[in-house]
Every structure is written in structure tokens, then in C-alpha cells.
UniProtKB/TrEMBL annotation:
Keyword list, A-Z: DNA-binding, Transcription, Transcription regulation
Transcription regulation recorded as keyword: yes
Gene3D superfamilies, per the entry: Winged helix-like DNA-binding domain superfamily/Winged helix DNA-binding domain
Chain ranges passing through the membrane: none
GO MF terms, alphabetically ordered: DNA binding; DNA-binding transcription factor activity
Species the sequence originates in: Citrifermentans bemidjiense (strain ATCC BAA-1014 / DSM 16622 / JCM 12645 / Bem)
Keyword Transcription regulation belongs to the record: yes
Domain of life: Bacteria
Stated name of the protein: Helix-turn-helix transcriptional regulator, ArsR family
Domain HTH arsR-type residues, every copy: 4-94
Amino acid sequence: MAFDKTKDYGKEAEMLKVLGHPIRLKIVAGLCTQECNVKHIWECLGLPQATVSQHLALLKNKGIIEGTRDGVEVRYAVVSPFVRRLIEILHQEP
């Protein structure tokens, strides 16, 4: 196995740090299957709206998800192909 000295894995490492939290990982896994608004996410997870909003802000800040305004609500979806592949791998049977 050869090591690539020129590749900087900084962005990937930051994404992995953010995904290291179980709640954020659940949110991302759910958003890989369907777009959702904040209310739907916190109802599904049984968490306070403020908690979900904080996690969504962090995921959005790292470029993992994006929000699309639909009238008065914002619908979130995973936009990172890297993260989508990670979730697919996590869902595979060992």
C-alpha cells in the first residue's frame, strides 16, 4: 500500500468529526433517504427543536447538508457525495 503525501484529508477529517455524534449520524442517515423539515426530524427523533436545529446548523456549516426554502419551511437534504457513500457503507451488512 502506498501513502499519498500530496493528499490533504482535512475536509474529510472534519466531516468525520461532525458525523461522530450519534444524533448527527441519525439525522444524516435519515436525510439520505428523504428531504425533511426540522419539525419532522425532531418528531422522528423525539428531540427538542432547538437541539435538532443546532445539529443541523453544524452539518450545514460543514457542507454536509443544505436547506431549500419551500414557502415558510426549510427542507434539508444531504448534498455531500462523500457522506452519502459513508452512509451506504454503514447500512451494509457486515
